[in-house]
């Protein structure tokens, strides 16, 4: 009997020691001090395994705060012997059923003095004020996998990276979602690695798809007819934030990692084009109602198409475009293999000249020459995109309706020539004759947003 009491005492002391350390870590405000504290306790196996359990986004317990308080009418089948055993039970055997809740509640009852702390562990709601990178830096090795997905760089700053074949697609304005399917088990995560629960309709679709260990990368969007992207975005946020089962949502998928282990490693070397082909086939042969494939707008090498597609996207009030380098791998970080092309801003510019078109546009307007004030500088730019053939013919005959007029145009960004230091407007686009301003005149009337 005494041996049993001593064993119990040692276990309680060990748990007590752990929670004291966790509370100390919570109270440390300095980043460097947190690192020093973790490094100083790196030999404490329970402390380190607890950090890994709490911070590892892939370890899901299926136990919520509400569920742990549930009154169940079944007897516990297995009661973990200690915290490490509890972590294993939660991540490998717990599906959230009443029998699991009963086992966890019994574990808590046996350590009643630590009830609140254990509940925070079980539900992974304990806030330590540290992230995976800080812990890994403190230990000098990767204890915790750092959740990440492929994020885009700016096209304007990386245009020179686009060499050879590329793929254009619509830039969706929703909520990023990563759907992991491992041994048939489906879990949904935000781009920050937070588990998204309640997407039962989407999960059911993915469960029935013909793959067992892969990752779908896409955008969560509200289903329905909306007057514009802004309205759909607001409704997406509203529906996705509902507690419990969420409905009226779909996922539009644009990338796919066939081997989930490559996602865990942070890189899949399968070229983007192959990933998209596999994804398209996978979704087409599945009878999905809430999972869709985002079709390509263009695939090829003609960079002139970028501007054309951006104009179309803008006319549809879409957020912009995404550009994938066709042979680029999937990287779980910000990558130059994925570039964001956002929609235009507006500028009121003074037309000081026009120029004739070339090739099939000889004898008609090729474009207009513009200048405008930008701070203390003057921006000079040519604008040849956006004109209809009828407008090109008309304005070449009626140049005076353009020259010395203030004209509102669309543009992507202000750029600067590295040699001449002359600033210009990237992707400057004609908006239509209704944007010839009669209420402004002269260079002082120009304005660049």
Description:
The strands form five sheets. Strands 13, 14, 15, 16, 19, 20 and 21 form a seven-stranded antiparallel beta sheet that branches. The protein contains 14 helices and 21 strands. Helices cover 33% and strands 26% of the residues. The protein is elongated, with a radius of gyration of 29 Å. 29% of the residues are buried. A hairpin with an 8-residue loop joins β13 and β14 (365-374). The chain is of the alpha+beta class. Mean pLDDT is 90; it is low at 1-12. The protein has helices at residues 2-27, 31-40, 45-55, 65-68, 83-92, 98-110, 115-122, 132-139, 200-207, 229-240, 260-265, 272-284, 304-315, 389-397; strands spanning 151-154, 166-170, 175-182, 185-189, 213-222, 249-257, 267-268, 291-293, 298-300, 320-325, 330-331, 334-342, 345-356, 365-374, 377-383, 406-411, 413-416, 423-426, 429-430, 436-437, 447-448. The N and C termini lie far apart (81 Å).
- Low-confidence parts, pLDDT < 50 over ≥5 residues? 1-12
Residue share in helix: 25-40%
Largest sheet: 7 strands, antiparallel
**Coarse shape:** elongated
In percent terms, what proportion of residues is strand? 25-35%
What value does the Rg take, in angstroms?
A: 29 Å
Distance between the termini: 81 Å
Look at the helices and sheets and give the structural class: alpha+beta
Please state the average pLDDT score: 90
Count of strand segments: 21
Task: Give me the number of helical elements.
Answer: 14
